[in-house]
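Anyone up for a design puzzle?
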């Protein structure tokens, strides 16, 4: 597994599942600022790592914050989260015939990191849905989502 995560607590939970996962888990950086250069760097990093994983026929899971998808944490984080969602759906379409899954997990502030890790592991195991947004938590209910 290739893991790109800046949160030590979430990284530890994901690392515990390392043997169960193949492919890429890319966790959007919670520290991404509002500047275009920071947003572009984050999306460029995601693109290169995903391209490498997909070129090897390995699954990709992008992990974002639910509030970022809703634009609650500022435009920079919203651009990254929605950009990763769009990238996942596009890559899923491109790689569906090859059977390579690309999905997004949206977590909330209170989401247990071990739950995120279990879902990432599940989304890399066998024939699964692809191009999907999986919400962990219920804060998004009743909100307009991208």
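Challenge accepted. My sequence:
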């Amino acid at each position: 597994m290739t893991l790109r995560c800046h949160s030590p607590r979430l990284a530890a939970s994901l690392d515990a599942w390392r043997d169960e996962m193949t492919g890429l888990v890319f966790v959007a950086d919670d520290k991404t600022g509002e500047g275009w250069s920071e947003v572009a760097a984050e999306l460029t990093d995601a693109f290169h790592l995903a391209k490498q994983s997909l070129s090897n026929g390995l699954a990709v899971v992008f992990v974002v914050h639910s509030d970022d998808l809703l634009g609650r944490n500022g435009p920079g984080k919203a651009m990254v989260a929605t950009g990763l969602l769009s990238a996942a759906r596009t890559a899923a379409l491109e790689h569906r015939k090859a059977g390579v899954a690309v999905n997004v997990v949206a977590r909330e502030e209170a989401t247990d990191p071990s739950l995120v890790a279990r879902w990432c592991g599940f989304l890399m195991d066998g024939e699964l849905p692809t191009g999907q947004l999986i919400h962990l938590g219920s804060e998004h209910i009743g909100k307009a989502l991208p």
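A detail worth pointing out: Residues 15 and 105 are 17 Å apart (CA to CA).
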